[in-house]
Amino acid sequence: MSPKVFSSKFMAAYCLVALSGCGLDAPETEPTARAEAVAQTQSELEYDPGSGWSLAWSDEFEGTSLNTGNWTTLNSDFDPVTNNCNFGTGEIEYPRTQNVSVSGGKLILKAERTAATTVSDTRCGAQQRTLFSGRLHSKGKVERRYGKLVASIKVPSGYGMWPAFWTLGSNVQSVGWPSSGEIDILEWHSNEPTWMKSANHWYNGGQADWGTGQSGGYNLADSFHTYELEWTASTMVFRLDGRYAGTTFYHNETEFQQNHYIILNLAMGGNWYGYPAASSIALTQGQPKTMEVEWVRWYQQGSTPPPTNTGVSNASFESGLADWTTWTPNGTAGAAISETYNGAHSGSYHLTHWSNSPFETWTYQVKTGLANGNYKVRAWVRKGGNFAIARLQGKTSGSAAPVYTTLGTYGGWTQIETPTINVTGGYLEFGFHTQATTADGANFIHMDDVELVKL
């Protein structure tokens, strides 16, 4: 689902796997036969990640409303994450929050045709639309790297349907696409209804693409199947219903060594279909189609329980410096400020350590009553200039030696973490300690989205 040109999409993901070649698509006829009959009504699909895997995060879509702690819905044809209109793919649907719902233990993205309706976003202008659908992402809420990312999904049949389950690098707002990296776990195309298509996109002196896929031998539409990515620092394996799908992706790109976030969307038309007119999409007014998701799960290797986020107060500085304390030995605490910044890792605010005079600042938060055990502090940072001290650190008492990681120079937002901190007395103070010994207005550190994780 990347903002790419038509030819690269096919050459990278489609031509690699399609037996029928790379022509433009026309509305398909219904398959005359399939190797395996699939019931239209199914109980929830079971999934076993195998030995050595622990569930680190999941959304089972229980209840009657979307968990907004996990997801953000889109209500515009402007994507605030990638900062473009129509998502760079020429899609002809307009996402709306009202087309995303949770019921019956499922997430439901509804595609529907309506009478011509004027919709407007000042960033993309007013337009008349007849096709509406749902799109949501986990940016700033669920961001991880490596492991097994898998979902149970039912995609809708019909010409022009383009359901997708995919990820983008969490630094996309600061570095842009494709430098952020993109992992397409599932893309489905109506002209090859038995195929799960998967792809990767990154930057290597220009846009770089890789694609694979697998035919299950049966129509994937209108019934639930599991779509899986197994991701390590050097490989990616894609699976359809637990079976190896296509070929392994071997990599060492930095785009795939960082956290990614999840996107689920039901697109229509666009470059993958050769930019068809809205009237040609197989969707009848009053007869919506749905992409349904029973669950999304992210597993990590290891048999121990997954890390637990203990809950940092005002972790992204949306409430200024509330819940944070600033200490300084020389009266330069004003070097620690919370500010609006367009390139923040998420949201509108972050913490900045900066002054055009020499300064030293320790901005920290205290947790008491912690369970004994091992912890790490994680945060997203950007840094430039020269510092005598630039650390993300934790201390188990006010006089204890800090456990810290030294901040490097990061042009784009980068997630860092401390070494393991052993807490035995329930007390931990953690945060950012910086010192600039000379006056240099080019010295800055931006910090955001702090986490305290129990291992």
TrEMBL record:
<dbReference type="Pfam" id="PF00722">
    <property type="entry name" value="Glyco_hydro_16"/>
</dbReference>
<dbReference type="InterPro" id="IPR013320">
    <property type="entry name" value="ConA-like_dom_sf"/>
</dbReference>
<dbReference type="GO" id="GO:0005975">
    <property type="term" value="P:carbohydrate metabolic process"/>
</dbReference>
<keyword id="KW-0378">Hydrolase</keyword>
<dbReference type="GO" id="GO:0004553">
    <property type="term" value="F:hydrolase activity, hydrolyzing O-glycosyl compounds"/>
</dbReference>
<feature type="domain" description="GH16">
    <location>
        <begin position="40"/>
        <end position="304"/>
    </location>
</feature>
<comment type="similarity">
    <text>Belongs to the glycosyl hydrolase 16 family.</text>
</comment>
<dbReference type="InterPro" id="IPR000757">
    <property type="entry name" value="Beta-glucanase-like"/>
</dbReference>
<protein>
    <submittedName>
        <fullName>Glycosyl hydrolase</fullName>
    </submittedName>
</protein>
<dbReference type="InterPro" id="IPR050546">
    <property type="entry name" value="Glycosyl_Hydrlase_16"/>
</dbReference>
